[in-house]
Specification:
The strands form 4 sheets. The protein has a 3-stranded antiparallel sheet. It has a two-stranded antiparallel sheet with strand order 1-2. The chain is α+β, with helices and mostly antiparallel strands. The protein has 3 helices and 9 strands; from the N terminus they run αβββαβαβββββ. It comes from Cyprinus carpio.
Amino acid sequence: MNGSGNAVTYANNNQIYIAGRPSYINYSTSQKISRPSNSDDTRSVNNVLLLTIMNPIYPITTDVLYTICNNCGPVQRIVIFRKNGVQAMSAQRAKASLNGADIYSGCCTLKIEYAKPTRLNVFKNDQDTWDYTNPSLSGQGTVQLMHSVC
């Protein structure tokens, strides 16, 4: 408890940066933090995956994610949201093969889970978004996540 108290006190008096981004430290209201294992993934299996890149020391682009995911099967679209991590999409075999793997030795660790959306629409091809089923896309555009309605 002393270590966590010291971290919160220090963070209240100093700006903390993680991977070059401002970060905030506070106490959790939970008594225990548990992460689901591969078998505990409660989201339905679909062809859209959410990849969270932990410790992203090196640049992550659609080319990097395509290179590692395409070995598990054809990649249709990738979208990167640059927030507290990097996210992308592929399929079931990629999740089983790549979850917990490092993109680069000792960093850029993948955490893979099924995303809520069942379809990903991409309207431009660049370093953060790419539709491999429509390589002629270019220029400004937007991304839409689509939930299926059945």
